[in-house]
Amino acid sequence: MAERSTFFSRLAARIESVDSLLCVGLDPHPAQLTESSAAAALDFCKHIIDETHELACAFKPNSAFFEQYGAAGWNALQEAIAFVPDGIPVILDAKRGDIASTAEAYARALFEALGADAVTASPFLGRDSLEPLLRDPAKGVFVLCKTSNPGADDLQTLAIDGFEPLYLRLARTVQAWNALGNVGLVVGATDVSALAAVRTAAPELWLLAPGVGAQGGDLESALRAGLRADGLGMIVPVSRGISSAKDRHAQAAQLRENIRAVRESLLSQQPAQSILPANLARLADELLEAGCVRFGSFELKSGKTSPIYIDLRLLASYPGLLARAAAAYRSRLDDLEFDLLAALPYAGLPIATALSLQSKRPMIYPRKEVKSYGTKAKVEGQYETGETALVIDDLVTTGESKFEAIERLKDVGLKVTDVLVLIDRQSGARETLAEAGYRLHAVFKLMDLIEHWEGSGQISKPQAAAVREFLER
Q1: Helix, strand, or coil here: 181?
Q2: Which of 241, 193, 249 lies closest to 214, judged by CA?
Q3: HSE of 64 in the Cβ direction (CA atoms, 13 Å)?
Q4: How far apart are CA 286 and CA 292, in angstroms?
Q5: DSSP class of residue 212?
């Protein structure tokens, strides 16, 4: 028996067949109808489907505009879904989410009675409220994450554990629910920074990104923030922008072309085979955009002149970027054995604090200047003799600067075996630390970053060559 396809495999096939990421919304607003009735709503939607089906990767009817007409509206919604040509997925915008037998009933109503291929759903009640919707891999579920409405920030940006916004915690949580490969996220195109943050937190999940057009979302910015490196992983629903146009087919064709142009541009900028996974590639780009990495002529502490300067202290001024950098560190923790995070002042302090909040691991830090009064502590924080400390810092060059901090940790009875940084400048630190019995782990190697930025056209070939020459010297 052939393996049954998942919702997203069928969506991807449709996207490739029509070269379109445009999802056409079916929102029969009463003001746009010849009369306020279920029959008029159905007729309205049929005309849009007829005029745009050749250009749409999917259709997204909004159930509320049908449900307002009672039983007749429900029947009209069922007919509208059935009217969509075979092979075009239907995503029902119903925002369901409940528990136990109620959730079971919703799943039967949406997928069996109405015949929808996917649904939008609220995660507020937790995973068990969505489990009946998730059981069939052929049916998709787009979970509300960071929505496009003005009041979204009332709850969705609330800080979890005093740091991480709720919507990012949700994005990571939903990944764990994606065992059958049929879960995506709803992330509004009206907040491009949030869209980029979710893409970094959930590099492979499909995103439904409403808000382009009437709500003011910028199409190009949204695509650049939300698309995966393969040019997929995101669809753009547009409703009023098409339904209110004099020539709906022409409007949909123009939208498809605009999306295709941005998509092709992004794909052409990607190296044939990027050395960085999608989530790290986006983090690398954000570090460059924030000015954490600069190119020019800079005098280093050693007195040498460098063509590149890395200042990760700037992360403290960009809370979202700091959180995404900490998430990249966090992905390395599972392979390491330790009891405490040991932050090295000063650049390592905000990074390790963010990492501690995300990972729930306790943090200490060796003082740069030992106090001459009070406790005269060499190391601040709670720890026990014999515990193992994982050294956290921003970057490493030769490794020499790490030894003083490690010695202070060892002086108070702590063990150190590993050092974790964001960037290894590849200037001998790995070898120096290894000779002393310590293992170096880095999220990025500097030359991988240089290759990525050069390959994507963000730095020039002479800039890249200057860094390579500097490192070789």
Answers
A1: coil
A2: 241
A3: 9
A4: 9
A5: B
Question: Which are the contacts of 303, defined by CB distance < 8 A and separation ≥ 6?
Answer: none
For residue 285, give the nearest of 184, 411, 374, 196 by alpha carbon: 196
Amino acid at 341: L
- Count CB-CB contacts under 10 A for residue 67: 15
- What is the band of 270 on the pLDDT scale with cuts at 50, 70, 90? low
Q: Pick the catalytic residue: 95, 246, 371, 461? A: 95
Cα 406 to its chain centre, rounded Å, is: 35
- In this predicted model, what pLDDT tens digit does every residue of 40-68 receive, in sequence order? 999 999 999 999 999 999 999 999 999 99
- Please check whether residue 50 is in contact with residue 82, taking contact to mean a CB–CB distance below 8 angstroms: no
**Domains in the chain: ranges and CATH:** 7-269 (3.20.20.70), 279-472 (3.40.50.2020)
Q: What does the DSSP assignment read for 228-271? A: -TTS-SEEEEESHHHHTSSSHHHHHHHHHHHHHHHHHHHHHHS-
Q: What is the CB neighbour count within 10 angstroms for residue 86?
A: 4
DSSP type of residue 62: B
Asked whether the beta carbons of 224 and 266 are under 8 A apart, the reply is: yes
Alpha helices (runs of H) in 270-395, residue ranges in sequence order: 278-289, 319-330, 348-359
Task: List the 363-366 sheet strands across, edge first.
Answer: 379-380, 363-366, 340-343, 388-396, 415-424, 439-445
Rounded Cα distance between 428 and 192, Å, is 39
Sign of CA dihedral 234, 240, 243, 246: negative
| 378 annotated active-site | no
- Give per-residue pLDDT as tens, 249-261: 999 999 999 999 9
Query: What does DSSP assign to residue 334?
Result: G
